[in-house]
Design brief:
The complex is a heterodimer of chains A (about 80) and B (about 120). Chain A has three helices and three strands. Chain A has helices at about 5-10, 45-55, 55-60, and strands at about 20-25, 30-35, 65-75. Chain A is of the alpha+beta class and about 80 residues long. Chain B has about 120 residues and is α/β, with parallel strands linked by helices. Classes of the chains: A alpha+beta (about 80), B alpha/beta (about 120).
Chain lengths: ~80, ~120
């Protein structure tokens, strides 16, 4: 369930040093999404989360993702 | 009708020191993420104006088209989108939320205190 989401994130963030999607409840629709990328350095948190939301817009619209937590990290 | 609704949502965003669009009310929160955002704002001592988006799906649609943010909850300080539950929590933990509130509302913002529930529902 998490692999397709990780694929979407990897294509949106090819430079990311870490992409991890965790199924938080085991139900396949509540996820923790973690992305570590130098692109986030100096970027406001709001913009970082917007990029992650945009990368996963399709599964969100399709209802595959019911709920998602986002944790972004820069290179430092 | 949706134009009236849009105006009402914008008015809450623009006129509230802190606006929280959530599922439910502070007395009866209907979603874990709305709860997380509310608790983060409470910990920072923010004067919060809340809007329950559940009574009409149009509220959420109009709100997201205004803010460009896809999910609920949504936190605004002085009309500016701060983000959802994750950002509110992260900013609260780092102390940045209190700094943002003091910058936007003045150092004595905690004294404004309290929670206010408003409705954007348009009478049928």
């Amino acid at each position: 369930m998490t692999a397709p989401l990780e694929d979407l994130l990897r294509s949106a963030f090819p430079e990311a040093t870490e992409v991890r999607v965790t199924d938080r409840t085991g139900g396949g629709d509540h996820f923790l999404v973690e992305v570590t990328s130098p692109r986030f350095d100096g970027m406001p948190l709001l913009e970082q989360h917007k990029l992650v939301n945009a990368a996963l817009a399709a599964p969100f619209a399709a209802g595959t993702i019911h709920e998602m937590r986002i944790k972004t990290r820069g290179s430092r | 009708m949706s134009e009236v609704l849009q105006q009402r949502i914008k008015s809450v965003i623009d006129t509230s020191p802190v606006a929280l669009f959530m599922k439910g009310t502070p007395q009866f929160v209907m979603c874990g993420n709305s709860e997380r955002a509310l608790q983060a704002l409470r910990r920072a001592g923010a004067p919060v104006t809340t809007v329950d988006i559940l009574p009409d799906p149009e509220i959420r649609r109009e709100l997201s088209s205004i803010s460009g943010w896809p999910t609920i909850p949504q936190v605004f300080i002085n009309g500016e989108l701060i983000g959802g539950a994750d950002i509110a929590e992260e900013l609260a933990q780092s102390g940045e939320l209190e700094r943002k509130l003091a910058d936007a509302l003045g150092d004595d913002y905690v004294e404004r205190g309290g929670e206010r529930v408003v409705s954007v529902l348009v009478a049928a």
